[in-house]
TrEMBL record:
Pfam families: Methyltransf_11. Residues 76-125 form the Methyltransferase type domain. It comes from the Bacteria. Gene3D superfamilies: Vaccinia Virus protein VP39 (3.40.50.150). This is Methyltransferase type 11 domain-containing protein. InterPro entries: Methyltransf_11, SAM-dependent_MTases_sf. CDD domains: AdoMet_MTases. Coiled coil: none annotated. The lineage of its organism: Bacteria, Pseudomonadati, Pseudomonadota, Gammaproteobacteria, Enterobacterales.
Amino acid sequence: MKPAQTRQKIPAPASWAELPWGEYYRAAIEQQLQPWWPKIFGFHLLKIGQLSAEIASESCAVSHQVNVGDKGSNMQVLASPYQLPFAEKSVDACLLSHTLAYSTDPHRILREADRVLINDGWLVISTFNPLSLLGVGKLLPVIRRRQPYASRMFTQMRLLDWLSLLNYEVMHESSFHVLPWHKQGGRFISTHLHALGCISLIVARKRTIPLTFNPMKMGSRKPWLSRTVGATKSYRNRP
């Protein structure tokens, strides 16, 4: 497995229109997010990156939505995604729409998003799926340097592993838009072969308690309980 961090900088497109079939990808992501936006509440939503800024989120219950990026005319805050100028636990939701696909250090971006998110905050991630027709294109020397094949592609399992280490609960995961050059992405094929979709989407929430049961922690309480019970018994048996 290739390391997540790389020295090779991949220039991110300024908009979805700069990507071949980019408007199709944007429309597909917006359609998948429609059921989730009304469920995300809070005061502040960060849309990190130029592609995130173009994702329609009018139906989101968060009214204050801020576009953040190191460049772009539609940015309200000009800042690096690696160093967000916001206090810890001050943001209710973060959108990373293909932000990781054009990052040199995706781990750092995830940690920075985690830093500014409140407890139980929402993290929405979309990226290209390497186990798709786009992933096959990365294997072809003729086109792998072109967009969108030149972007970084991470498997959904790898993304889920990163989120697990940060203690996130995955609320939704899906792959869709199997045929990248079709407006609907091949609706019939996507219904039956959705795992081969060229776009992956993950909706997760930041948790503060362990998501897995740890019997060691529960076992550590047993001596304390036994001593208490024993002390009570000995007290009652005193003459």
